[in-house]
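stage 2 :: seqdesign
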């Protein structure tokens, strides 16, 4: 059984001692009931933000328009949010207005799924007006209220449904599922980075087959050209859980199914960071060309494309074809053999002392690097200086 830590109990008791209602709510309740240590502890209360700030000196208004105050107790931060209700959502993501209410059930009713709409008091009593506990036991993701209304209010909830389904290996309630498919076009209103973050959580889970449902439900249509059949992402879960590796695998599957032209096109549209775009694009390029034939070839590839991209391509090639490229690459990395100018025993300054400058200097460094890649035992300063000789202007 998982219990809230001392500082969280202290916040609940302090609020209650002033006659405010206070409960643990949302993800932490769900995770406690699943016997999983929560990532963070959220509290909801009938106290108004100004009252919360007064009770806890040093607290910060982090989302005051939504009633959220970050309370700091013994160096721990906890988000404390006033019970609230939300009115119309005109942009398919944010409510136009929120207002504070004094009733917990009203606050729970604005939450997305029944398993996320439970609260627990400091005495351990569960408040569960939408039967979230039943759904936890049945391992089902179900909307609070009418799914059509809830997805139309906030289109991100469609991706969140699949994300929770992937994280806990839960199924999605049939009516909720049909509604996602129906409301999928409203994904166009979302900020691409919000979608990217949800997709990444699915990709980094143990249940990447949920991405098949995402594709099938038309939730990728904004970024891809959906052609039949829907690609199968199940085996992506066999790849290392690093974000860039799972993204590279995902892009590879999509590209070969004809859903995207290139990794770079998809990842730019999702506003991915430049490093991930570079690794995935280079990886895709490497996978589409003949792999190096020997150790020297791999070192040349490492030199030209960088460690991250080559490791990623080796990993994905092994995953696709059962090759053993990763072993070769890690053996090179472990050996300390030089494949980049950074590890060459001499640098530009050494060559300048021997009369080199400008493009000739660059060419000589590259020549020496190529030489050392083929003769790793000769990565020695004196020897390389001798090999370069003195440069004389012609
Ligand atoms: P995680 O462990 O991933 O943080 P979580 O359930 O805590 O999961 P958060 O995004 O941190 O998810 O949100 C906290 C709570 O706020 C949720 O449990 C849910 O009750 C509510 N919530 C969050 N996002 C939405 C949303 N888009 N629509 C309705 N309720 C939401
Ligand atoms: Mg959370």
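stage 2 :: out
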């Amino acid at each position: 059984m998982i219990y809230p830590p001392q500082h969280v109990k202290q916040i609940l008791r302090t609020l209650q001692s002033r006659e405010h209602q206070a409960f643990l709510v949302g993800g932490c309740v769900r995770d406690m009931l699943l016997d999983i240590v929560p990532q963070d502890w959220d509290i909801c209360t009938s106290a108004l933000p100004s009252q919360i700030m007064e009770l806890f000196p040093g607290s910060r208004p982090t989302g005051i328009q939504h009633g959220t105050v970050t309370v700091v107790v013994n160096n721990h931060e906890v988000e404390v949010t006033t019970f609230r209700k939300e009115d119309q959502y005109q942009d398919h993501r944010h409510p136009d207005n929120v207002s504070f209410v004094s009733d917990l059930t009203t606050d729970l009713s604005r939450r997305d799924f029944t398993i996320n709409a439970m609260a627990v008091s400091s005495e351990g009593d569960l408040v569960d007006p939408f039967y979230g506990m039943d759904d936890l036991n049945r391992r089902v993701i179900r909307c609070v209220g009418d799914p059509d209304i809830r997805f139309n209010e906030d289109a991100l909830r469609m991706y969140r449904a699949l994300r929770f389904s992937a994280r806990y290996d839960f199924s999605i309630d049939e009516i909720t599922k049909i509604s996602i498919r129906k409301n999928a076009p409203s994904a166009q209103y979302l900020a691409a980075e919000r979608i990217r973050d949800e997709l990444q959580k699915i990709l980094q889970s143990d249940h990447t087959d949920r991405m098949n449902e995402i594709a099938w439900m038309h939730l990728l249509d904004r970024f891809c050209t959906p052609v039949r059949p829907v690609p199968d992402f199940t085996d992506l879960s066999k790849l290392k859980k690093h974000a860039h590796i799972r993204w590279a695998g995902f892009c590879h599957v999509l590209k070969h199914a004809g859903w995207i032209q290139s990794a770079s096109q998809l990842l730019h549209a999702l506003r991915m960071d430049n490093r991930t775009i570079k690794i995935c694009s280079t990886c895709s390029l490497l996978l589409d060309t003949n792999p190096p034939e020997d150790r020297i070839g791999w070192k040349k590839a490492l030199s030209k494309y960088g460690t991250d991209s080559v490791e990623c391509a080796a990993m994905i090639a092994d995953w696709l074809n059962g090759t053993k490229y990763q072993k070769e690459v890690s053996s090179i990395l472990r050996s300390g053999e030089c494949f980049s100018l950074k590890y060459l025993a001499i640098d530009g300054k050494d060559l300048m002392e021997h009369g080199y400058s400008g493009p000739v200097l660059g060419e000589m460094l590259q020549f020496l690097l190529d030489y050392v890649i083929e003769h790793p035992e000769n990565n020695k300063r004196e020897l390389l200086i001798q090999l370069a000789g003195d440069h004389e202007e012609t």
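stage 3 :: structure notes
- Residues 231 and 253 are 7 Å apart (CA to CA).
- The longest helix spans residues 358-374.
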